[in-house]
Write a structure and sequence with these properties.
By secondary structure, this protein is mainly α. The protein contains 9 helices and no strands.
């Protein structure tokens, strides 16, 4: 009789973690952050509450990891699509804002991708839920900024500093303030739903902002 193979505990743990993250995203999309509970996540994932608390200290921690995981998978999907489309060097580029030497074109490319993410139904609901809750929950808001926003904003700072070195942006411009000229209007329109969020709007933001950042004659 062949020996019985021991269960792969690491594989089982990976399946459980994936089920928990997927359940958390599904619930926050369906019922919102406040009505999402550890009990509900556990029931949806088919695990016990103790399994969740073994890995995360709170509901906020579960949702944050679930959202970061979703954002990471979305970025990997975009990279895979670019690579399959045969874009040069797509599979070798480090994460960041492209630096083709054309600041306007590079920023428009990135802001258009941001528009697509914000309009993606899969990403929109959890993004809105965590953004809204972060306004009233200072601790969650700080974690959201530290773990998600700051790394993304740092990419803009890097690109804008490169533009300063190239002479495309005034030397006296603070890149951290300048990037808010790009991101701020986009998020304002998205959060308040004042008008449709489109590629054309993203392009106009870049044109307006870079026009003010360019060296004066």
């Amino acid at each position: 009789m062949a020996p019985t193979k021991a269960p792969d505990s690491s594989r089982r743990s990976d399946r459980s973690r994936r089920a928990i993250l997927d359940a958390a995203l599904a619930l926050v999309t369906e019922v919102g952050y406040r009505r999402t509970t550890i009990e509900g996540i556990a029931a949806r994932a088919g695990v016990g509450k103790q399994t969740i608390y073994r890995w995360w200290p709170s509901k906020a921690a579960v949702l944050m990891d679930a959202f970061l995981d979703l954002a990471g998978r979305s970025a990997e999907g975009v990279a895979a699509e670019s690579e399959s489309a045969g874009e040069p060097g797509a599979g070798e580029q480090a994460p960041g804002i492209p630096d083709t030497g054309d600041l306007v074109a590079d920023l428009k490319l990135v802001l258009r991708a941001t528009v697509d993410e914000l309009n993606d139904p899969v990403l929109e609901a959890p993004t809105r839920a965590l953004t809204a809750e972060g306004i009233v929950d200072a601790k969650l808001g700080a974690e959201f900024v530290h773990r998600l926003l700051d790394p993304q904003l740092a990419l803009y700072v890097t690109r804008l500093r490169a533009a300063q070195e190239a002479g495309d942006v005034r030397a006296d411009v603070d890149p951290r303030i300048a990037l808010e000229l790009l991101i701020g209007p986009l998020m304002h329109r998205w959060l308040l739903r004042t008008l449709p969020l489109t590629h054309a709007y993203a392009d106009e933001i870049v044109d307006y902002a870079v026009g003010g950042l360019a060296p004066r004659p």
